[in-house]
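Table 4 source record.
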Amino acid sequence: MKKCLVLILVFMFNLQIFSEENGWIRINQIGYLTNDIKNAVLLLKVETDVNEFEVINSFNDKVVLTSSKVKKYGKYAAFTQAYRLDFSTLTKIGTYYIKAGKYKSPDFKIGNDVYNGSSDYLLNYLRQQRCGFNPFLNDSCHTHDGFIIYKGEQDSLHIDVTGGWHDASDYLQYLTTSATTAYQMMFAYQENPAAFNDEYNKNGQLGKNKIPDILDEAKWGLDWLLKMNPNDEEYYNQIADDRDHAGFRLPTKDSANYGKGLERPVYFINGKIQGVYNYKNRTTGVSSSVAKYASTFALGAVLFKEFDSEFSEKLFNKAVSAYEFAKKYPGYCQTAPGKAPYFYEEENWVDDMQLAAIQLYKLTNNSEYLADAVNYSKEEHFTPWMGKDTVKHYQYYPFVNLSNYLGAQLSKENALLFNSNMEEGLTKIYERGINNPFFIGIPFVWCSNNFVSAAITLSRLYFKSSNNSKFLEMETSLRDWLFGCNPWGVSMVIGLPDDGKYPLDPHSSLAHLYNYKLSGGLVDGPVYGAIFNNLKWLQIVNGDEYKDFQSDLVVYHDDFGDYSTNEPTMDGTASLTYYLGEMQNLGNQYKSEEKYTVNNGAIIRGDKAKKEISLVFTAHEFADGADVIINALNKHNIKASFFFTGDFYRNEEYKPLIEKLIDNGNYVGAHSNKHILYNDWGNRDSTLVSKEELFADIDDNYKEMAKFGINKEDAKYYLPPYEWHNGQICKWSEEIGIQVVNITPGTGINQDWTIPVEGSKYYSSEELLKKLYKYENDNGLNGFILLMHFGTDPRRTDKLYNHLDEILTNFINKGYKFNKIDELLSNKKTK
């Protein structure tokens, strides 16, 4: 009886704990780059006011950030309310967790190597999907493919099309997704070649072959595409149909019967409606499919030229022929259904023609292709799913149109058109997502994760092309969604990160029947509750561990019975290779810049390992130190940096002086137009100017500099008025291509402007020199941005600049080198 009582008490205690678990903090399980926009989402089942949160070091439990940057949202999905927690100001590398009230997040990392190897990791799943020889199984499958259908008199004839990849967990193969998969991997390599290693050979087996693994994988697809296009007017769209859905089995044990033994049907592209049973597609032409051949062959011709010139030449000729054929028979070509109504319902084709045209322009430099690309871009500005609540299955495909980005890079005269197309589509997604805690504006239809991947890809490319950061918060939020910052707290990529929470029971015969461990696959992702409830043959087999997080709005299940949300796909996986490669590259850029000290977005110190100082002077009204300063610099053969306001540049009295500084080889830059205060002295985060006011002020400053032959490209480093800034000012400045710099704190010599009437706030030159020398003796000045004023109020008669010769002599004798600001930060890449 006592044992029963104890068990009951324990059960009730556990039940009480469970019932009190009514809040969760979701984070990106992979982690965050140091300079990322960083947000977590607090989800609650109860009404609770949250006004601040803490970020805590996981190793010593010390609070590193207390923030009130909390944005409250109402009901979302299964939750009563939600909060968005912004901790972007935390840039220090480390491992942390977040606490908001009694709620605690999992640990997460901040570091610039968190994405390293992630793009290569995705290739594991592509190798597992290989048809023909499969290196994961170390065996071959579908070696009898296949027999032709929909080609009249040639129906039932054998055609060798073994190879390529299985589309998903079934073993169908589609030109549509296969060409897109190969193209996106090659695009990923083209944009970030350093992100990819060479650890596998062409057969997908361990062993280097002097070709990056991602190109080996792409070539596996290209070789198959060549088989599916045996001559200039013969193109095939599909191998097998849903008769293949005969239950879980290994591909090497596939026994699907299509009436010709182990041969499977190969669908000829005839531009007409197809479907061997009651269900039919709605094909209108060939362009959507054949143009995919053209763009993929064209990009392959560029990238494989250095590895296999003969192969490259073959792809070149194929690309040209495919484009002409696609142009001759416009329209979309859908995949063919079988016994079920499900097929890829692609209804757009102009985007495919645009991509093929721009790739052929890059390949041939023939302006006719560029003209075609421009015309196609005017017909379909952006992929039409953007901004919609729902779409049919693969109705608009590929999910991202990469040709606008490529066009902007290849044709400066049309860059505005191509960039505006990208912006238009992104704005549609932005407007749908801005009012929910996850900033997610994609439709929760089948393969929703592919839409997320498309959106983050387009946002990153738009930022690279236009330098407009408008969509970066949305982009990072959507990226974070894929890696755990979602209602279920699960990464949508199998095995990534290895210590994270990711799908363990995917819809896959390899995993379900044979307990093979999949790795790298992006699963389909969450769908609307209405879609889940109406799909045929769908069931939850092993119970719903996420039942508390499901809603009528959206559901996700880690269960092999849910093919709608938990099936990994090859094209979805390939679509992420670009973005993760980009994140690795960006992290490595940040890592190379870690030698610089950044505060609220401004660089405030150079490389601490180098005994270098940048001496800078600012001026708005006064220039009484000009002669003394110039003479001291000339005496020691030193170049310095001068930051002047627009008013200073306009002053006729100072024009000869400015010209002299320029002639002497000094850095001459901007310091605002009217020397206005940008952000509050007492509350640094309180910005006192609008973005438009800031842009106007800086622009007017540069306009005055232009009269002296100085343009923005010559002087990208910008020192704000009063030497005072915040993160918002720096973000806005980056949008117009300038990098904020500021003084290195510690020495105090920037107080050389103070005047005696200020009493205790006044610092004499003797005090300032004493403080400077002591600081240098105790800490050193490596990488310092050391600021003095070019002139000061006449009420200050004790001028620090009169001691400049002494300062220079002292530090030169100690081995310091003086550099201009652009030299001190020569390895810093301004945006």
